[in-house]
Structure formats: C-alpha cells, structure tokens
Amino acid sequence: MDKKAITIDEVKQYWGKKNIPQQWYSKRTPFTLPWFNELAYKRYKIYYEYIKNEMEFEYHRGEDVLEIGCGIGTDSVEYAKYGANVTATDLGPDQVMLTKLNFNLRNLPYKEVREANVEALPFKDGTFDLVVCLGVIHHTPDTQKAVNEMFRVLKPDGKAIVTVYARGWKHYIKRCFIHGILRGKWFRYGLDWQKVYNEVTEVHGGTPKTAIFTKREVQKLFHQFPTLEITKHRMGEFFDYRPYNTVKLPRWVNNLFALFDLGAMFGDQRLIKAQKAYFPKEASLFDVWFKHY
What we know:
Radius of gyration: 20 Å
CATH architecture: 3-Layer(aba) Sandwich
Shape: globular
C-alpha cells in the first residue's frame, strides 16, 4: 500500500460529486425517475450482469439489510422492492441525497439512509441479517477494520456479500503492462505498483487508494468468518460492453469464455459471500455415490 497513510476524509472527498459511480451510464435528464431506471438497467444488464444473479435481491424479505457504500442507491432499492428493511450508508451527503431521491421517486420505504464510515459503523453489535458492500473496501484506508466492522454488526447467523477488485486480465494487461511498463508509470512512481493502481483504475483516475486483491489476501481479511465462498466474475470492457463507444468483441468470443467458465480465471471482480455461522461443507463425491441418503 501507499507509504504515506491516507485518511478517510481524503476518500470521502474523492468519491463525492462527479466520482459517484454509475452516473455516467445514462444520458437522460439527471435526478429523474427515467435517469435512475436507465442507470439500473445498464448496471444489471450491461456493465455488471453477474450482480443481478448473485446479490440475492429477492430472498431477504422482512430481513434487516445494510448496504455500505450505497452510491446512488440502485442496489438498496432492489432489496427494498422485495420487502427487505433497508438501511443504506455512504461517506458523503451527495450519496445520501441521491439514494433518498431514488427511494422517494419510487415511493419505496427504507429504514435509514445516512452518512457513515465503514471502518466505524454507527450500529450496535448483531443488528443486521445481511450486509452488502460492493466495490468499497478496496478504497478504504484500513480494509481489515472495515471487514471487522461488517462482522460485528451482523447477527449470529448473518451473511455478508462483498466485492473487491481481482487480479484479472485487465489488471495485468492494462494496469501493469500498458500503464505500468509501456507508459512508464511504474518507473515514474519509484517501482511502487500501488501508486499505479491508484492512478489508473477508476473512471476519473487518481484515487487516494485502490487495492487489488489476491484470493489469499481475501481469505486473510475474512478470517473471522467460519464459512467463506470466494468466486471471480466479470470480464468487463470489450467483452461485456464497448468502453467509450470503441469496440466489443464478437459474440462467439463471449460464448467461448462462458463455455469454459474463463471468467472464473480472468475476471476482474472477486465476489465474497461470508457467513458468520459455521455451515459444514457439502458431501464429497464418495458420499454421494456410496452413502445412503
């Protein structure tokens, strides 16, 4: 990580206003219902299709759900549509305003939308059935503290669904090879890869911190959770969509990657499903064939 420690205020300042994710997905009139609707469509059907399948929106009716890093509220709204009791937090007032507007335009109820820091959540121990945190903790100064806080606010049998950046094809080709080596940024930053990641990863670049995690690093972060599932998803630009109206690979390329599940190897997102209670592993192949059920 950076030798100079960053502060949560630096992160808060960066992620407000124009840097709040998803806003650039739509050309409709900002802050209207059609604008929010198109942002949701683009998020779930084009840019992050796996999210719709993995976030379990339909399956937490009546449960207390916390989203950390709600942004414009797209995912919080989905949980509310299916009857969850939603609490949403983000670092800044811009995100809180947009999320409340998203709910209000749809006449959907929510429990609370407020400013909060993932490293010091303002909730009692054991408050939530589900904690959702997508694309947040790789930006916060102390990622371990953030994971500890999620564990703390979950009920004894609660579950966390989290995403972080993975070292997929985009990481090695775009961040490391093109920007780091060909464009000389690794040398310019004194052979400090973290500074390269900080500069080149996000849409507007120059983040205070953007960490890219290996599977082993994720396992270490979530060591408190006795039941842990880690998968890799999303090929992203050129595969799922045309970045900045450039090109998209032919359909057969995507079909080939899907056939061999290559997204699990080359994807740029790690999806973590962590449960606070211990759930035994499913039976082995030997058990299925040779034991009586």
